[in-house]
Amino acid sequence: MMFPTSASVVIALLMGIVGGAFVIWELRRVLGYDPGNETMQAIAKAIQEGSAAFLSREYRVIAIFVVIVATVISTFLHWQTALCFVVGAIASAGAGYLGMYVAVRANVRTAAAAGRNLHEGLRVAFGSGSIMGMAVVSFSLIGMTVLFLMFNGNPNQLTYITGFGFGASSIALFARVGGGIYTKAADVGADLVGKVEQGIPEDDPRNPAVIADNVGDNVGDVAGMGADLFESYSGSIIAAATLGAALGAKSPAFIGLPFLVAAVGIIASLFGIYMVTGEEPKQSENGNDSILARIARFIGQYVIKIDENASLDDLLKALRHSVWGASVIILGLSLMAVLISGVSFNYWLVILVGLVTGNAIAYVTEYYTSYTDKPTQAIAHATQTGAATTIIQGLAVGMMSTVFPVLIVAAAILLSIWLGHKADGTMAAGLYAVALAGVGMLSTLGVTLATDAYGPVADNAGGIAEMSHLPSEVRHRTDALDSLGNTTAATGKGFAIGSAVLTALALLAAYVTAAKIDNLNILGPTMLPGILIGAMMPYLFSALTMMAVGKAAHEIVVEVRRQFHEIPGLMEGTGQPDYATCVGISTESALREMILPGALAVVVPLVVGHVLGKEALAGMLVGTMSSGFLLAVMMANAGGAWDNAKKWIETGQYGGKGSDSHKAAVVGDTVGDPFKDTSGPSLNILIKLMTIVSLVFANSFGSGWFNF
Amino acid sequence: MMFPTSASVVIALLMGIVGGAFVIWELRRVLGYDPGNETMQAIAKAIQEGSAAFLSREYRVIAIFVVIVATVISTFLHWQTALCFVVGAIASAGAGYLGMYVAVRANVRTAAAAGRNLHEGLRVAFGSGSIMGMAVVSFSLIGMTVLFLMFNGNPNQLTYITGFGFGASSIALFARVGGGIYTKAADVGADLVGKVEQGIPEDDPRNPAVIADNVGDNVGDVAGMGADLFESYSGSIIAAATLGAALGAKSPAFIGLPFLVAAVGIIASLFGIYMVTGEEPKQSENGNDSILARIARFIGQYVIKIDENASLDDLLKALRHSVWGASVIILGLSLMAVLISGVSFNYWLVILVGLVTGNAIAYVTEYYTSYTDKPTQAIAHATQTGAATTIIQGLAVGMMSTVFPVLIVAAAILLSIWLGHKADGTMAAGLYAVALAGVGMLSTLGVTLATDAYGPVADNAGGIAEMSHLPSEVRHRTDALDSLGNTTAATGKGFAIGSAVLTALALLAAYVTAAKIDNLNILGPTMLPGILIGAMMPYLFSALTMMAVGKAAHEIVVEVRRQFHEIPGLMEGTGQPDYATCVGISTESALREMILPGALAVVVPLVVGHVLGKEALAGMLVGTMSSGFLLAVMMANAGGAWDNAKKWIETGQYGGKGSDSHKAAVVGDTVGDPFKDTSGPSLNILIKLMTIVSLVFANSFGSGWFNF
What we know:
Two copies of one chain form a homodimer.
Chain A: H1 5-31, H2 38-76, H3 79-114, H4 118-150, H5 157-198, H6 210-245, H7 251-277, H8 281-285, H9 291-303, H10 312-341, H11 346-369, H12 374-382, H13 387-400, H14 403-424, H15 427-442, H16 445-467, H17 472-514, H18 527-566, H19 579-611, H20 614-650, H21 660-696
């Protein structure tokens, strides 16, 4: 007997609800921590207000976009797709808002907890990250499964649900681009005047842009990253289900499998999360935790040991073990899922390929961006001959760092297609396998996103500790947590781009099926122009976002200079800086500058699809995917490596802080800022959004204006 | 009656001989100029010896490569292909050597002529460039036509001749990469110690690396650029002839047409060249010039007016008019060629598309890199907030500058395919048209390369004027010529990459035919891995070349510092610097560092073709073409814009020389050096070489190790 699709979907819905319950439970736990003294709370309040103000204004802009697009969809396609689009947008925005809501409250609690000991600090910050992680996966899964069940029996069921992915992508794009511009404009602006011109340290409360800088960490790295992966997660499941539907007799099992894998991923992620946050007598005594939590905590006790003298490596190991623990559980449970689905064992191997791929890319990213390894040290070495050689070496490292991720992803695609092809004898099964590998890779998202979203919380905690003059050992502890966050952020970016490529490829395959393209010859008349235009899009997009950061940072610089000039006693600490104006400028400029790149990503596929035809559009998507992948990896890794080269010099290498080498490293770090936090990560979403727009409108494209 | 192929080929051969005669005649004319005073001659001699030493050592390394590859070819393919390979390599190397031979003699003569007036200086420098330009086109045309006639009647005739393109590509790669590393290592090394540490001006004779720097201009920008375009020129003709052979009944006419277009291009180029170098009583009186020369000179008198106060714009106009004049002639004569060939009028439109494309790309490049336009001025503006914003803005400008070249090339491909398709009703005719557009674009090469290869001669002349303490008005004149050279170099790079894409696409189409690939589905099992690996190659290649420049420059820095430290009286001008050691270091490191990237470009296509199969190889070529095109344009234009932003500041903007803005601009310029002169232009050849390797070995690839 074949396992029915709806049973898989219901299981996924139930697991989504379990994840949602964890979110509420963990939210109460994190907010129950001591929020620190009054100074700390006042600073945290400013960050909370700035973040909330930005996000609500950003969401208002996005709401206009959502209404316009929903109208277009319901006019030209179906109201059902429009409904799914709106639900996808709301679910993604909701997860992002919640993640940010807790992050700007966990930061001050992390600072306070770090006043007690390192593990307490990690537990609060990681708990906050886990709320984001679980909110993303459970909101996505609940949204999709409810819509799926609502349209059950309708033959266009899956077509409608692509709208959910489109809604999620739209939010993701604006959140990543808007948040990315905000965070780096504030960061670069604050540094250029504060550190360089006035010679005051990072996070100094006298700097008028310091609150904007801290707000930026939350709106960019928490809400932006969350929306990005919400989209990959939803997209990979939608693509797999859509491709599964085309596989003939066994398709009910194929459609259900990605939902089942996602469902077991939630259990596994919860396990991974407990491994880090566990071992807490207070919670286990009040009796409201599960057997799973007790087991995870029990294992965690032996695997994860974080004492006061924990090195960066120890902390990293702790987080890595939690991800690995989750992966092992997924492998076990998804084997069961494959068996009860009645599909070939090969598909379990495909899930394994996905999991290994994610971890392998993360490993390579770590190698290229960690200052304990050669590439970053080579950049530090190049600082001796000045800023120019620092930049050249950093760009070269970034370019070199693309080699292995490309080979890994290429191998994953080839292996998945091969396994799927072997199992069911068709190329369609092969492409389904690629989508399933993407689902497998993202099945641990609940815990991997937790390790990622925890970083900005630790970063903020350090800022709050600095601004409220806490004892230096507190700052040391938050610095340790922050360094860890930098590494997990870099690996998280590698993970995000890797999953974006697999998801986009699967969505592309779904598009080709939906658009009824039968001849996709690479030498077809419009194909090569399409590929070239597609390859150009990431460059145009990056140029726009980098220039936006430059422009916005310039406005901040002018304002900060004005305040230092006009507010009496600011440098002496007797005058009060006007934080709100800087927050306002960052908000205004980020919202203004995100419109054009965002609109381009939606409009260009539609134009190309109509003018050059549906084949050229497929070519364009391939061009954007390949060129965007490369550029994104290059930018993310160069940015991460420059950042850490500077950090390495700050440990005393090549003259340490204040030396000429350090000055050159600061130039590298500043160039890397928009690379790794604005332009680079936005490309993931560009790739996916362009593909999903094409998929949603697939039926509307013809053979174009050129008549061959 | 159809015009026979062999008649077209014979006409091309004759025109090639005419071009060759011009080379000899012009060589005598340029060398007949006054070589200046003894100091000047001594400096020129050092440059001559350094250049000759590098080139002969480089050619020795390449010779080993050529012998190995020729053995492989004759073992696995045919001895005929191996012969063509060797002839192609020798012809390209010969043109490169000749171009450099005259450049290192024209430099000192240009300096002396600039002592008289500006137009005289232009005439010598441009004359030297025109020798290079005509040597490239005529050596290529003579080589190919002789081989064609030699194998006449043999059904594999055209297959063999692809070997000529392979030979030319191999030389091009090593010349571009080796020369590029040499020139930038010497340049960066000389500047870092000379300008930055010791505070002595550019081209100061006390700098031990100054001769190496001047040698670099010749081996990189003359020999390297020449070999690059030799390859594009040969490749476009070979591709067009090969694709023409597949067009059925009319194929003799189709095969002959590209040769005819190339033949008329020589006449047109000669005309364009005379427009600049003409109006010279001495030469017209000795009676040994043609009617063509008299007409060109007559027109040139009215069109080109260069007086002492000529601005950069006037000089630019002079060169532009000569290219435009040549283009008009080509259009007229190629209409006749199309008519006598008996093919559709559409193919004349295709040639027009090619010519317009080349000029349009050149125009866009000029806009993005000239300091009279906004993009470069925006970089200069960004220098006010330091080196980091200078770099961010420059990279953004470089990325933005890819948009129009991509749209232009995409439109050219689409239009060409459409015109060819309309004319003969098949996609094969469309792809032939793309190749023919490439031939059209490159038909003016004799004169466009002259405007390009003249730059380094003017640059060297300035250096010689500086080192031999000529009066300041001489230096002003050579500076005017040099500025002009910077702009033509940037436009030349745009032209080189545009033609590389068209040529590579045509070669790819020839490969697909030769490898008998019938299913090139973009979603085929191995296609996407192929595309991703292909897209990665330019990043790997650029990373290697940029790191090579960094490493070699570092060695120069160490040596120059040693000399300043150990040679007594060097700074005071009483001690004699040891130029030869710096020349030796540059030579050694360039030759050492060019091996790996060069070998990769040849080996990777063979590995992918055998392991992943011939379809994956086609995908890889598409990936490399699209990704390489974007990266090359970005790097070339960012580099050119940084260079000119610095020059603009040196005219007095933002505080002028020595200001903080200028320091930031110097960082940008230094980063731009390997961008625009090493990594960026090398990518053209990477694209073409990988494609031609695939074409030559097309028959040897199967379906790969993965059995689907």
